[in-house]
Design a protein that fits this description.
By secondary structure, the protein is of the alpha/beta class. The chain is built from ten helices and eight strands.
Length: 233
Amino acid sequence: MKYTYIWFDIGYTLLYQQREKVYDQYLKEHNIHIPIQKIEEAYHYADKLFMREYPGILGTKTDHFYPWYLGVVNHYLQLAFHLESQNRFMQKEIQETKPYWLPFSFTKDVLHTLKQDGYRLGVISNWDKSARPLLEYYGLIDYFDDIIISSEVGIEKPSKQIFELAFKQGKTKSEESIYIGDNYYHDVVGSAKAGLKTYLINRFEKKGIEELHYPHTLESINELPSLLKAIRV
């Protein structure tokens, strides 16, 4: 199969939060020192737990779930804090960390390579009105031929309608496209309803998704150009 269109999620596919940095600042306030990679792993496990058990909650307002989420991160690291106090600290630091979302170091290079290789590129993401400004701020928006944002179109993954809308806008078909995302229950399950092949981003090999038997996983989009060269006919 010759794929011509590559679609991307945004969060933890193209961009990431500086949440581990903020959490590490909180630990230092308590004279606790844990390697940043261990903190990243704790957040990864919390993400996957919430994606699996509480679908959609991570996309809601932080006051709906964040203390609860922090408790999971703490538990993974074998720590215990007063969650209300910790949450106040974290929210203050998050607001003062500008920018809070950053592109992965390889994001722009990968997009540039894919465009040079002749692929059309698009975004399909559950995100608020900040999506386009973020992509523009980091000089990424011009790489994309089509951008479908849930808050703009009124449809969210895992509904197959958001993927079908993308195909219509991009004048392409599911069999000509590949999707890349980090949430199995939104990205893989949702895109499958629309007949779209998806590669699942999981930064820690199979950690956090041990219950899944899904063969198409990547550590990051950095693997994508060589993968596409291998499968391109």
